[in-house]
Design a protein that fits this description.
- By secondary structure, this protein is α+β, with helices and mostly antiparallel strands.
- The chain folds into 3 domains: 58 residues; 88 residues, PDZ domain (Pdz3 Domain), CATH 2.30.42.10; 226 residues, Alpha-Beta Complex (2-enoyl-CoA Hydratase, Chain A, domain 1), CATH 3.90.226.10.
- The longest helix is centred in the N-terminal third of the chain and has 27 residues.
């Protein structure tokens, strides 16, 4: 009989007991001691169950898989964004944050045992195949997703470039499941795309990877050069369907357009360890008016950007409510055995708002015209719709549409933003019940 896994459990329990003993001199609360004793009892229970399974299960179990499954179960009980990554998953994550990886091109999370699409990445195989935000992936190549971990499901969707994978999707509002076959490709994420819309600079920020800030600076300079002596009247910064990414990149991109003031604060369980990030002098936009486009697919770092720009009145937010992911995950390497992705704090906008499970409401609500075949399928419930999400006293279930028309000529949110920057009336773009007091050019 192999002893190593049992010794590992014993070491874990022993470490817990040693911690308990060393703390008895400083614990003055009987409740704290009782809680530690209960933790020790539960760890002992875990060891008992593990040993019983090892000895009596009908077949010889894979002990390493049992331990990994136990870790995954522990983390999944916390919130939807905490998870364990084995060595391969950790490497894949590092590749993804560098901006190049193999796969389909979708940002996903786990919900009620299924894989939910947060957003497809622009110009990737999944995007081109019609995968939409809020789709629930139930089967991958005819294998049921329920019962898999998120890492297992992602591994199945990845594979050699040029091979195909078939996804069965449950789409809100659709009577029957949708099946799509997608050819895998190397995903080279261009985090920033830019173009001139006559006298307006349009900046599409698709994700916050390690290249985003540098790409943004380069794109803004190219727009200024292209506009020439006539100059620009303003910028549209499109954060729609941007799932977020690296915190430092979100802070740097926000700093690029703010000349002073707080950008975001990060607060964990220990109030003494609050981090605050502030803007440095200099404004990449030269003080020109900015409209930021947001929708139900805008999450995390894109919400940091939108929240700071709104609180400092540096930009007008236009579109629909954001996703509401207001938590920060820390990647903790585990001695060559993968890494822990652990939710360690919440972030707050400069005015002290927590976006968690609430999202950011735009200054001006403009909704897209949804094609008849997609009506009812474009809506996201946002963070508040994820099982086990961190709560927020200001929480409001909702979310919003994550649909962006493929033809810019049909994009009401973009057209409204351009009109706003040019000082034109935008009444025709607004919901009838929304007041129009913000229909002037932003300062």
């Amino acid at each position: 009989m192999r002893k190593l896994p049992l010794l590992m459990i014993g070491a874990l329990v022993g470490a817990s007991m040693a911690t308990l003993v060393s703390q008895t001199h400083v614990l003055n609360s009987t409740n704290a001691v009782a809680a530690s004793a209960e933790t020790y009892r539960q760890l002992s229970l875990f060891g008992d169950v593990f040993e019983r399974v090892r000895q009596d299960y009908v077949e010889q179990p894979e002990e390493a898989e049992m331990i990994e499954a136990a870790i995954n179960g522990m983390l999944s009980s916390l919130d939807p964004h905490s998870s364990y990554m084995d060595e391969k998953s950790h490497r894949d994550m590092q590749q993804q944050t560098r901006g190049e990886f193999g796969g389909l091109g979708i940002e996903v999370t786990m919900e009620e045992g299924l894989v939910r699409v947060v957003t497809p990445i622009d110009d990737t195989p999944a995007f081109n195949a019609g995968v939409m935000a809020n789709d629930l992936i139930t089967h991958i190549d005819d294998q049921q997703v329920e019962g898999m971990t998120l890492s297992q499901a992602v591994d199945m969707m990845r594979g050699p470039v040029g091979t195909e994978v078939t996804l069965r999707i449950r789409r809100p509002g659709a009577a029957e499941p949708v099946e799509v076959t997608i050819e895998r490709d190397t995903i080279r994420v261009r985090p920033v795309r830019a173009r001139l819309e006559d006298d307006i600079g349009y900046l599409r920020v698709t994700t916050f990877n390690g290249q985003t800030y540098a790409a943004l600076r380069k794109a803004v300079q190219e727009l200024k050069d292209e506009a020439g002596s006539d100059g620009l009247k303003g910028f549209v910064v499109d954060m729609r369907n941007n799932p977020g990414g690296l915190l430092d990149q979100g802070v740097m991109v926000t700093d690029a357009f703010l000349d002073r003031g707080e950008i975001v604060s990060i607060r964990g369980r220990d109030a003494d360890r609050t981090q605050r990030f502030s803007a440095s002098s200099g404004d990449l936009g030269d003080g020109l008016p900015i409209v930021v486009l947001i929708n139900g697919g805008s999450a995390s770092a894109s919400e940091i950007f939108a929240g700071a720009m709104q609180d400092h009145e540096r930009a007008t937010l236009l579109g629909s409510r954001t996703f509401g992911k207001g938590s920060v995950q820390t990647i903790i390497p585990l001695n060559g055995n993968g890494a822990l992705r652990l939710t360690t704090s919440r972030y707050y906008t400069p005015s002290g708002r927590s976006i968690q499970a609430r999202g950011i409401d735009p200054d001006i609500v403009v909704l897209q015209d949804i094609p008849e075949e997609l009506q009812g399928r474009d809506e996201t419930t946002g963070e508040a719709g994820l099982r086990g999400h961190l709560s927020n006293e200001d929480e409001e279930m909702g979310g919003s549409s994550a649909y962006i028309p493929p033809d810019p000529e049909d994009d009401k949110q973009l057209l409204a933003a351009l009109a706003l920057l040019r000082g034109q009336q935008i009444d025709s773009f607004l919901k009838s019940e929304v007041e129009t007091e913000s229909e002037t050019v932003p300062n």
